[in-house]
Amino acid sequence: MLPAGRRAFSALVRPSLLRDTTAATTLRSPAALRRLLSALAILEQREGKLNTGSLSAITAAKQLGGTIHGFVAGSNISAVAAESAKVAGVDKIIAVDSAAYDKGLPENYAPLLVANIKKGGYTHVIAGHTAFGKNLMPRVAALLDSQQISDITAIQDDKTFVRPIYAGNAIATVESSDAIKFITIRGTAFPAAAIGSGAATIEEGIDPKADTATTEWVSEDLAKSDRPDLATASRVVSGGRGLKSKEEFDRVMLPLADALGAAVGASRAAVDSGYADNSLQVGQTGKVVAPQLYMAVGISGAIQHLAGMKDSKVIAAINKDADAPIFQVADVGLVGDLFDKVPELTEKLGKA
Ligand code: FAD
């Protein structure tokens, strides 16, 4: 159940910088839309593996009804391009094979995209609302004198988009009259397009070979885990400040995650207290998840936490405080001491 206020508020926002109403919106036949609309989906890849958010960007592009091109760049890109070409409904994959784009540095990537967008004459450019998309898209939009629309959860028509604001407590309907609409999409709102029966053509894109002297990739420190990826897992168990310490977080939460085959998440209080890695934070300033099952353990249910998990299909909560706000959004709640209840649950799940 969502707080009543969240559903009640809906605003139509017309960003002041927008202009150039297109003729596309007055024509509705599929054939006309296909002629007038063309979307470029930015396909994010890391070491040859496509990010699921990119496949969600293709799903969003399909909802527009026009032609769809995918764009991918990096070294040895042919296998990723071939994989992307198999997504049904994609007309063309534009690929640029260069190590300069491996790390997705926006200083390098933005001029690359600008050149290819200008050549393709697209009406829409769509990326996942991932760290990569958030870093890149405003820069590209600004270079083309357009306004970017972030984190959309629905497409009403080719110029009207829905996005949560105020940590998900209000839903804004945003209308854009920019000639090119730059949007990032919330992955949990658009299912990933399947890689299967498509047969898109693959074309080499323009490589402007921008001067990369201002930015240099130094290193990265990645948290590695054998558990499911938090952003896309179908089950997530999250721990909060109620876990009391990192040792207890690991002792209580990890066996529960293993028993359920779940990804581990955490509240910001748990992250800030050093119980869990920053990459596990769920919420307004962390990851937004919408798994089949979200279990909140020792989490009070602050509004900023709810912003990252309230669209989960089933929410279960364990908390010793019967008045904790998490119970207002939970489908299943257990009032009790997590240090008793979670090990008991884990043991029963292990026997199931
Ligand atoms: P608490 O609020 O301290 O709750 C701990 C809970 O554990 C309590 O309900 C308590 O009853 C329960 N408990 C304690 N002991 C036990 C026990 N033995 N058994 C069972 N239950 C027990 N927070 C996020 O999570 N994600 C965000 O992205 C985020 N972004 C933020 C952005 C901004 C700008 C701001 C201002 C805040 C943000 N926060 C975010 C912080 C948020 O407001 C809360 O402070 C935070 O979510 C609280 O975490 P918690 O529920 O783990 O801790």
The proportion of residues in beta strands is 15-25%
Strand elements, count: 18
Mean pLDDT: 89
Encode the helix/strand succession as letters.
HEHEEEHEHEHEHEEEEEEEHEHEHEHEH
- The span between the termini is 29 Å
- Side by side, the strands of the main sheet go 8-12-7-2-5-6-13
Number of helices: 11
Relative helix content: 25-40%
Q: Write out the distinct hetero groups bound to the structure.
A: flavin-adenine dinucleotide
Radius of gyration: 22 Å
For the biggest sheet, the summary is: 7 strands, parallel
Q: Which structural class matches the secondary elements?
A: alpha/beta
The outline comes out as: elongated
Description:
With 352 residues, the protein is α/β, with parallel strands linked by helices. Helix content is 29%, strand content 24%. It has helices at 4-8, 30-36, 52-64, 78-84, 106-120, 131-143, 246-260, 268-272, 303-306, 326-329, 338-351; strands at residues 10-13, 38-42, 45-46, 49-50, 67-74, 92-97, 124-128, 148-152, 154-157, 160-165, 170-175, 181-185, 201-204, 235-239, 263-266, 293-297, 314-319, 332-335. The strands form 4 sheets. A 7-stranded parallel beta sheet has the order 8-12-7-2-5-6-13, sandwiched between helices. Helix 5 crosses helix 6 and helix 7 (246-260) packs parallel to helix 11 (338-351). The longest helix is centred in the first third of the chain and has 15 residues, at 106-120. The relative contact order is 0.12. Mean pLDDT is 89; it is low at 1-27. The chain binds flavin-adenine dinucleotide (FAD). Flavin-adenine dinucleotide binds next to helix 8, helix 9 and helix 11. It comes from Bombardia bombarda. Heterodimer of an alpha and a beta subunit. Pfam families: ETF, ETF_alpha.
